[in-house]
Design a protein that fits this description.
CATH superfamily of the largest domain: Efflux pump adaptor protein, beta barrel domain
Number of domains: 3
Order of helices and strands: HEEEEEEHHEEEEEEEEEEEEEEE
Strand order of the largest sheet: 2-11-14-13-12-15
Radius of gyration: 37 Å
Shape: rod-shaped
CATH class of the largest domain: Mainly Beta
Number of helices: 3
Helix content: 25-40%
Number of strands: 21
Length: about 325
């Protein structure tokens, strides 16, 4: 916001506070945005893909289009029968090596006892100890191999990479996938309004500017405002892409179009709260205080509504007012 806009905002906040307390509202020209209506779409700045980490067959789909998912939630399960068969083979090998290790432990204990009595030479004891160590290390190696296979089997769970809403599920149960194949598209949370503004207005938009949203399309009766978060530097098809953040923006219909007004320049205008204007016999009037004892009705020409964050019922007055007029509530 420019320095002049900040000063005007503080000025009007003071006037509104005094008007709410029963004091007259002093009229002064105010710089207002020359707004342009454009259409924006509800979009996610990031569309992430939930990908399969192993190859195999899709055994189960745990999410469908429109579901909200959290980061790490399982959206599908990929199974590989070869891994199960390899696990069974390793289980059999581990069982055999455990039996060998048990026998090697018994042989080592017997050899140590006989060696302590001087019955056998040290070479026989070393052979028994070596056999025990070989069986023990073989068992450790097979257990490690089984842990690797278990990890691969666990990677068959396809997880959502971020919290958001599922836009599209690409596969069905029974589909064969390879490592890295996308399974579902997830629109990450933190939804924004994405505007596409003609390039001639590119120099007038910057991060932090306020945009006005058509509240009726969001199911609200009061004006809604947002803030421009990012102006993309690349022009596409003669339009500038702008992301605006709006509090409480609905996220179910990703891609929904909403009408938004953006500033396309500034001009001076008289803006007063609509509650100061009343209609009598088809003519709009405001009450102007002439002195401490006299108030007169002055006809005015009503313009278009100009709601602002500090004045939700702002109304432009095209004619009938002069700088310094003091308005009172009817």
């Amino acid at each position: 916001m420019t320095a002049r806009g900040s000063a005007a905002l503080l000025f009007w906040l003071g006037l509104l506070a005094s008007a709410g307390a029963g004091e007259p509202l002093t009229v002064a020209p105010l710089p207002v945005a020359d707004e342009k209506a454009v259409f924006a779409t509800v979009e996610s700045p990031r569309i992430v893909l939930a990908r399969a980490r192993i190859g195999g067959t899709v055994a189960e789909i745990g999410a469908r289009e429109g579901d909200r998912v959290s980061g790490g939630q399982v959206v599908a399960t990929v199974g590989d029968e070869k891994i199960v068969l390899q696990l069974k083979s390793l289980d059999a090998q581990i069982a055999g090596i455990e039996a060998q290790l048990a026998q090697a432990r018994i042989d080592l204990a017997r050899a140590e006892e006989l060696f302590s009595r001087g019955t056998i030479p040290r070479s026989r004891l070393d052979e028994a100890r070596t056999a025990f160590n070989v069986a023990d290390n073989a068992l450790r190696a097979r257990i490690a191999e089984r842990s690797v296979l278990e990890q691969r089997l666990a990677e068959g769970a396809v997880q959502a990479p971020a919290a958001g809403r599922v836009l599209k599920v690409r596969l069905t149960p029974g589909t064969v996938v390879l490592p890295g194949d996308p399974v579902a598209d997830v629109a990450a949370e933190d939804f924004v309004l994405r505007l596409r503004v003609p390039e001639r207005h590119a120099g007038l938009l910057k991060a932090g500017d306020v945009v006005r949203v058509d509240a009726a399309e969001l199911g609200d009766v009061r004006p809604r405002f947002g803030t421009i978060r990012l102006v993309y530097p690349q022009i596409e098809d003669g339009r500038v892409v702008v992301d605006a953040v709006v509090e409480g923006l609905g996220d179910y219909f990703v891609g929904k179009r909403i009408r938004v007004w953006v500033a396309a320049g500034e001009r001076m205008a008289f803006v007063v709260p609509e509650r100061f204007v009343f209609t009598r016999y088809g003519v709009d009037y405001v009450k102007v205080r002439v002195d401490d004892a006299r108030v007169i009705d002055v006809p005015v020409q009503r313009g278009r509504p100009l709601p602002r964050p500090d004045m939700p019922d702002g109304l432009e007055i095209l004619s009938g007012l002069n700088p310094g007029d003091r308005l009172v509530l009817p």
